[in-house]
Backbone:
């Protein structure tokens, strides 16, 4: 199965990057879920949780506020003003 | 004669204590350059991503966005000059300010009014001393810039840009800062931030042609939100690079100051020894002359 290449960056540092099965986040228009093969999208992020299901390991959660994310041929770039990984 | 020796001793003592300070500052600067550069590297994924997104939006949509459209006859330009807060960094601030002066002169010749925005106490002092006006100044932490500061500056400048020209808004925005090319080479440069010029294709050259994005919400709104962030990230990147340059300049200045102190110490030690020897010689000849006089009588 195809994988997503996910990159999460905040304005002053890279937060997380790796391969994932799916990404779920909240945009200004509502929640959005990204699976491999998603059509290219560029969307604004709202404040909320971001959940990444990596290919291996437990889901990664992060709190993000503001910013945008782009999906383009299985490359997901989440660019947040502030992003904080939930360690729990 | 004894007074001469004392003077040299004092000079040697003060020069060596200054040398210690220079050495310490050099070490501090050296250790912080690495940190400044890694911060610049850490911020670059964000800047890259945002640049890619902005050029993707702009390339496929012929949107007339305020931030991208050129005003017919630009009459007013904002110039943001990034200098340092503290001195002891050689010609670092002077070079940036000189570059800024050259740009100001060129823009004035084109008939534009200049609105200076300053960053760093050195720029403020430069303008205050010449009793020139400036619109706003930010000081503090130029050697370790914060994102919040960059956002504040970005917002201020974008707001000013969005104001209609008649109400005092600016038509162009220039950024003058020092580019960190290597540890021994930092070059003051000028970048035009606004209106945006999408020529950053070299970053995309290795990429496939930018895909046709769906926008959520509309492309205009996405661009509305993206462009200020783009400006902010550019300003932040410039601030980080300027801070690395500042530290590198300081390291170099402190190193040559310490070397000069070394030379001075050597010179004064030589002079002190000369003076001491002269004193001994004189005492001896006085003694001999005295003894001779006694023997002759």
Residues:
């Amino acid at each position: 199965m195809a994988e997503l290449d996910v990159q999460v960056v905040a304005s002053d540092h890279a937060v997380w990057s790796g391969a994932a099965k799916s990404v779920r986040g909240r945009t200004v228009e509502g929640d959005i879920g990204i699976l491999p093969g998603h059509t290219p999208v560029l969307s604004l992020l709202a404040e909320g949780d971001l959940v990444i299901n990596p290919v291996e390991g437990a889901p990664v959660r992060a709190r993000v506020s503001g910013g945008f994310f782009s999906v383009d041929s299985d490359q997901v770039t989440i660019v947040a003003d502030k992003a904080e990984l939930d360690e729990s | 004669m004894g007074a001469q020796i004392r003077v040299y001793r004092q000079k040697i003592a003060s020069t060596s204590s200054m040398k210690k300070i220079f050495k310490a500052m050099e070490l501090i600067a050296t250790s912080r350059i690495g940190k400044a550069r890694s911060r610049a590297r850490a911020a670059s994924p964000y800047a890259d991503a945002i640049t890619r997104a902005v050029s993707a939006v702009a390339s496929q949509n012929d949107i007339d966005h305020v931030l991208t459209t050129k005003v017919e006859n630009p009459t007013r330009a904002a110039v943001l000059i990034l200098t340092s807060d503290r001195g002891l960094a050689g010609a670092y601030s002077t070079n940036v300010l000189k570059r800024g002066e050259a740009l100001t002169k060129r823009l004035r010749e084109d008939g534009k009014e200049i609105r200076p925005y300053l960053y760093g106490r050195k720029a403020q002092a430069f303008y205050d001393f010449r009793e020139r006006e400036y619109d706003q100044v930010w000081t503090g932490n130029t050697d370790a810039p914060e994102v919040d500061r960059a956002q504040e500056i970005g917002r201020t400048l974008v707001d000013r840009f969005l104001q209609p020209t008649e109400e005092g808004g600016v038509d162009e925005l220039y950024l003058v800062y020092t580019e960190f090319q290597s540890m021994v080479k930092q070059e003051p440069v000028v970048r035009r931030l606004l209106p945006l010029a999408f020529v950053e294709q070299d970053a995309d050259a290795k990429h496939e042609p930018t895909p046709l994005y769906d926008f959520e919400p509309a492309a205009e709104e996405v661009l509305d939100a993206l462009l200020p962030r783009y400006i902010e990230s550019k300003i932040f990147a410039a601030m980080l690079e300027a801070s690395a340059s500042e530290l590198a300049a300081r390291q170099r200045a402190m190193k040559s100051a310490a070397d000069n102190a070394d030379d001075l110490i050597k010179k004064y030690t030589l002079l002190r020894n000369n003076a001491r020897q002269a004193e001994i010689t004189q005492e001896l000849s006085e003694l001999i002359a005295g003894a001779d006089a006694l023997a002759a009588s």
